[in-house]
Specification:
The structure holds two protein chains of two kinds. By secondary structure, chain A is an alpha/beta fold. Chain A contains eight helices and nine strands. A six-stranded mixed sheet of chain A has the order 5-6-7-3-8-9, with helices on both faces. In chain A, strands 2-1-4 form a three-stranded antiparallel sheet, with helices on one face. In chain A, helix 5 links the parallel strand 6 and strand 7. The longest helix of chain B is centred in the middle third of the chain and has 30 residues. The chains are: A alpha/beta, B mainly alpha.
Chain lengths: ~260, ~280
């Protein structure tokens, strides 16, 4: 099954907004985590980042967020030619909440989007605003649940709703499908597709779930400290590099 | 203060008779200032898993007092505040930038501080016993001037809470997420640990080093058992701290035990009750 995809996302960035990453290099604690990473991310496009654990996927996210020093360049161009910093919505790998954590979805959400202290009585207006945000991801029924009591899929939806407020240019999701059951996964993927069409934003996500890539990803990037292969899901999943990283490489130690 | 004495004089206790027992009235006022302060900070200490950190701060405050005493300062409390502030900031820096687990970092700092404190206190064959009062604390020795200082700190902490609580909470839940939303996580943590440092150090003289940490942990821990959101959490924590503070002071007056220890025991009892209630509800 193949869902609608943007046709104009060809090479170059003519006319459309675009995140351009050129020759990116990152060192963490003396180790080279990323080297010579280059790719473009156009608006309305979903790009999936795959690669083994420790391939530098999370580091790449952190770098795009501006939290890590790097070499090379990260540039963003809006459709109108404006080159200011893009607004990035970030959905982290599920944060850990204790089951007993007295943080409700409302608390978490309003702490992030408003300056009204969450320990004071809630103004009705703020509650309405949070409800509106949660509605975008069909999660408005969760507002009074505790964060620790949410299922994996529910937590991802709440985090997604937060990343969409304020509406970003680029949405980045770090392994949104891990810890989510099959129903939740389908729901989340449908939602991403809906969001991409509705708001015309770029989505970059990392995943270990290759079976569903074909459904939603316009482009797949195979990363292992450097970009090994870029292309459509079929191209990358059928490539020599993909098999070498995920199967034939087993037991042979690190690739040179 | 005379206004406060006039109010207390209305209470039906033997120590509340007009014109006498001023130390007890001072202590009551001090408890009413200290306990909500600790109740307030406690929720965030528990939430961001810093309970061991506040314990370590007490140790560094002790070292600061030892250094102050060595230098012959009139009021070694200020050297203690300075040292524990430095300790708190350095700790936050090391924790953020080293990738070492935070309990290890705390252990390193705590043991260093306490060793340095004992080393300085016993320099030249000095005796440690003069510091014993710090370990247990004496709320009855509090003076009106110090109560005013504590009240100022309470106001400052409340103001800090209004400005920063949201960001602090988000930083403790997920630093990278908080950062992606424009929150300076390092500075949030630095300010928070500095606030704990000041509060712990200033109130140590009256509460006692050995039990001060329980005041920072127990109110939040107990409230956490019952609360379902942040409003209940903070409210229960502050109310629990105040109730235990008053109860503990009264008990210590009538039985003659240490006030700090009595307050802590009340809080521990409150924690037990809240824990049992939680069990029943789930």
């Amino acid at each position: 099954m193949r869902v609608r995809k943007h046709e104009q996302s060809g090479p170059g960035c003519a006319g459309a907004c675009c995140l351009r990453i050129e020759d990116l290099g990152v060192r963490l604690g003396g180790e080279e985590v990323l080297r010579h990473v280059s790719f473009h991310l156009h608006c309305g496009e979903i790009v999936a980042l795959i690669g083994p654990n420790g391939a530098g996927k999370s580091s790449l996210f952190r770098t795009i967020l501006g939290q890590t020093a790097h070499t090379g360049s990260i540039r963003f161009q809006r459709a109108d030619g404006d080159k200011t910093r893009p607004l990035i919505g970030y959905v982290p790998q599920s944060p850990v909440f204790d089951r007993g954590d007295p943080v409700s979805v409302f608390d978490f959400f309003s702490a992030a989007i408003s300056t009204w202290p969450v320990f004071l009585p809630t103004p009705a207006k703020l509650r309405g605003r949070v409800e509106g945000c949660l509605e975008r991801v069909h999660a408005d029924g969760l507002i009074d649940k505790r964060m620790g009591a949410l299922s994996g899929g529910e937590l991802q939806r709440v985090l997604l709703a937060l990343a969409l407020e304020p509406l970003p240019h680029i949405l980045m999701l770090d392994e949104p499908l891990s810890g989510v059951d099959i129903d939740g996964e389908q729901q989340l993927l449908d939602m991403l597709d809906e969001i991409r069409m509705k708001y015309d934003l770029s989505i970059l996500l990392s995943t270990h779930d290759f079976a569903t890539l074909d459904q939603y990803a316009d482009k797949v990037i195979l990363l292992k400290n450097q970009v090994l292969r870029t292309g459509t899901p079929e191209e990358v999943l059928g490539s020599e590099e993909f098999r070498s990283v995920f199967h034939l490489d087993l037991g042979r130690g690190k690739r040179a | 203060m005379s206004f406060w004495y006039a109010i207390v004089d209305l209470l039906p206790f033997e120590w509340a008779q007009p014109g006498s027992m001023f130390f007890m009235k001072n202590a009551l006022l001090a408890v009413l200032v200290i306990s909500p302060l600790f109740g307030l900070l406690s929720t965030m200490v528990v939430e961001s898993r810093m309970s061991f950190f506040s314990d370590a701060l007490g140790h560094s405050a002790f070292t600061g007092i030892a250094i102050g005493a060595l230098c012959g300062l009139a009021d070694p409390m200020w050297s203690a505040v300075a040292l524990s502030l430095a300790f708190a900031l350095l700790f936050t820096y090391v924790r953020r930038n080293s990738g070492i687990a935070s309990d290890t970092v705390i252990g390193v700092f705590s043991s260093t501080a306490v060793a340095l404190g004992i080393f300085i206190a016993t320099l030249d064959g000095g005796s440690f016993t003069k510091f014993n009062s710090l370990l247990i604390g004496d709320i009855l020795s509090v003076e009106p001037g110090k109560i005013a200082l504590l009240a100022c700190i309470l106001l400052a902490a409340a103001a800090l809470w209004v400005c920063c609580f949201n960001q602090l909470m988000l930083s403790s839940v997920h630093p990278a997420l908080a950062n992606s939303r424009g929150i300076g996580v390092f500075w949030q943590e630095a300010v928070f640990s500095a606030a704990i440092a000041v509060v712990v150090t200033v109130s140590m003289t009256w509460v006692g080093l050995l039990v001060i940490n329980s005041l920072l942990v127990l109110p939040g821990a107990a409230a956490r058992n019952l609360a379902r959101n942040m409003r209940q959490y903070n409210l229960l924590s502050v109310l629990g701290a105040i109730a235990a503070g008053i109860g503990g002071l009264m008990t210590s007056y009538y039985i003659g035990a240490s006030a700090g220890a009595s307050i802590t025991l009340y809080l521990a009892g409150w924690f037990l009750v809240s824990f049992l209630l939680r069990k029943r509800r789930v």
